[in-house]
Amino acid sequence: MSNKPVLDIHDKPTPLQLATLSFQHLFAMFGSTILVPKLVGLDAAIALLTSGIATIIFLLITQFKVPAYLGSSFAFIAPIITVASLDASGVAVNPGNAMIGSMAVGITYALVSLLIWKAGYKWLMALLPPIVVAPVIIVIGLGLAGTAVDMAMNVNGEYSVLHFSAALVTLFAAIVFNVYFKNILSAMPILLGLIVGYLYSIVIGIVDFTAVKEASWIEMPNFLIPGVHYELNVTATILAAMLPIVIVTISEHIGHQLVLGKVVNRNYIKDPGLHRSLLGDGLGTFVSALIGGPPKTTYGENIGVLAITKVYSVYVIAGAAVVAMLIAFFGKVMALIATIPTAVLGGISILLFGIIASSGLRMFVESKVDFGNNRNMVIASVILVIGIGGAKLELFDGAFVMSGMALAAVVGVVLNLVLPGREKGVTDAHDY
């Protein structure tokens, strides 16, 4: 089979090709991008709108050399849920808190990209080796397991066989599309699983279309202004919950750039450079937070579409971004998305969160982490127990709180730095 691209990076598709291929990328990212806001209480329309905006920003920063689509990041689900419950008294629900944290994440990306530009990237690889990143990824997946099962089984706090059946149908459909189907269908199991589960939910009568009938065809998304706090304890807790997760998301970003480079036969670490792609990711996240969108990340689903279709054109990626932004203003479409039952979301989350945890295990295997080495055993064990156990660190009479996966990530980095036997990193990235 030829490895020659159907459309290379800067090839311009015909109008018909642009339309069809852009929608293909839209479908690939759609399920995951709208799932995150629905899980954390943000607006799905804003998530779609900001995914398009962030993708355009990413393309601009990377000089239209990297055909990557940016969607909602799953790594921040638990931190967003945590910080949304904080205000000055620590009890009110305010999703604007998460936007402050997301803006800080974007700024952190920018600072790291500046360091990479000046000093190369290998210091970062030494700071975040697989023995630190892999168990934190496992914590992210398993830490959300209870949430997924509760969504799948319970309605208003009570067990429902009917809703659980919808969750199981959704889960089974997603598994079937992921395992048994090939080509483009295997690249979007989340979207297809949601569709099958939704159709089943309509048949059993647990979908209410009242809001769809009442919605206008064209509506403005519900923009969310970031929360501003003058209470040091609230701000510190928000930052402590969200910033440590960049340990995982930056590693994910590097992995995606390496995989994408192999797919399209480019070296994106060198050109346009890891510093540019990371800055594009961070700036996309920052701008997204300004209007209420979740943090962004490059999407493996869309990289999969590139690999399957051999259509690498950045014009197609930009087209998908524009379509996503337009759909965000269709009120009836967004109202229809809002009718997806919680059980269906729970069913897809069981698979999704499990895959997240399993990808951490896969990183152990692919990186050939030696658990006969006591140092590796200690680091992984401590991260897993602190993260899954929900350990909490409180300082200054509760003015600073760090818990769960955030605390586990920080502890993992510290252990990797202080325990003897760490491999020394090289700071020159230009010989990659």
Automatic annotation (TrEMBL):
Keywords: Membrane, Transmembrane, Transmembrane helix, Transport. The keyword Nucleus does not apply. It is a multi-pass membrane protein. It comes from the Bacteria. One of its GO terms (cellular component) is plasma membrane. The chain crosses the membrane at residues 39-61, 68-86, 98-117, 124-149, 161-181, 190-212, 232-250, 312-337, 343-365, 377-393, 399-419. PROSITE patterns: XANTH_URACIL_PERMASE. The keyword Transmembrane helix applies. It is found in: Membrane. GO terms for molecular function: xanthine transmembrane transporter activity. Pfam families: Xan_ur_permease. Belongs to the nucleobase:cation symporter-2 (NCS2) (TC 2.A.40) family. This is Uracil permease.
